[in-house]
Write a structure and sequence with these properties.
mainly beta, SH3 type barrels, endopeptidase fold (from Nostoc punctiforme), 2 domains, seven-stranded antiparallel sheet, five-stranded antiparallel sheet, 22 strands
Length: 264
């Protein structure tokens, strides 16, 4: 197959485990996400997300083809936090975009997806930004109470690793898609009392596999997606869920992605 590249032309596009509408949604593409097309079985294309390397199947009608030159371009304008960030297409129709979506080739209020141009009706977030633990926490709180959705990446449905990936992307820090992959990034924090705002805590199952991740608000509280994006207490054993009256996740490791706060 001739090498093909494409870009997501809708606000949110499901990416599935196989080429069927009944297949599990493993992740989502957001507006402006660029992909490499690995296989075609129309109406399905198997794609690889340029941002995090994640692969899966999506309906080709939610994509538009682009050249390899365009695909190789790096874009630094993002959709900021908010629920009313709109762009309009050439036909005047409106798209409501999710926070952390890309705005390719943004200039003078216009972004471009292949041959399509969209008027941007908000002020984009331009990278790089000055990222701190506090700024990561502030972004994380925007997602509070968002419902849990396996494979989700938006405030209307998000999973644990999609949540932290979106928050860190808005801070200019690139994370992989799954918690087990994210746990391989960053610098290890040796003890929970040393955890600082913005650190990531990872949790494993009985087999030792990393299955969950959340963002530390301080050494005693974590915000994470479990049922919904929520704040829970954390100690050396893991996350304690007051509603359940028990520990829900077993702590494995803590990682840091920002410079540590100097201690007096």
């Amino acid at each position: 197959m001739e090498q093909t590249f494409a870009i997501c032309r809708v606000a949110v596009a499901p990416v599935r485990a196989s080429s069927s509408d009944r297949a599990e949604i493993t992740t989502q593409l957001l507006f402006g996400d660029q992909v490499e097309v690995l296989e075609k079985a129309e109406p399905w294309w198997r794609i690889r997300n340029a941002y995090d390397g994640y692969e899966g199947w999506t309906d080709f009608k939610q994509l538009t083809e682009i050249s390899e030159t365009v695909y190789r371009q790096q874009h630094t304008a993002l959709v900021p936090l908010g629920v009313n960030n709109q762009v309009t297409g050439a036909d005047g129709s409106t798209y409501y975009l999710a926070a952390s979506s890309h705005l390719p080739f943004f200039r003078d209020g216009i972004c471009e997806l292949g041959k399509e141009k969209f008027q941007v009706l908000f002020q984009p977030l331009n990278l790089p930004v000055q990222v701190t633990g506090d700024s990561l926490a502030e972004s994380a709180l925007f997602f509070q109470n968002a419902p849990y959705l396996w494979g989700g990446r938006t405030i209307f449905g998000i999973d644990c690793s999609g949540f932290v990936q979106a928050v860190f992307k808005l801070g200019g820090i690139k994370l992989k898609r799954d918690a087990s992959q994210q746990a391989e990034q960053g610098e290890t924090v040796n003890f929970l009392p040393e955890a600082q705002t913005g650190d990531l805590a990872f949790f494993d199952n009985a087999d030792g596999k990393i299955i969950h991740v959340g963002i530390m608000l301080d050494a005693n509280r974590i915000i994470h997606a479990a049922g919904k994006v929520r704040i829970d207490p954390i100690d050396d054993q893991g996350i304690y869920n007051p509603e359940l009256g028990r520990y829900s996740h077993k702590l494995r490791i803590i990682k840091r992605f920002t410079d540590p706060i100097p201690r007096p």
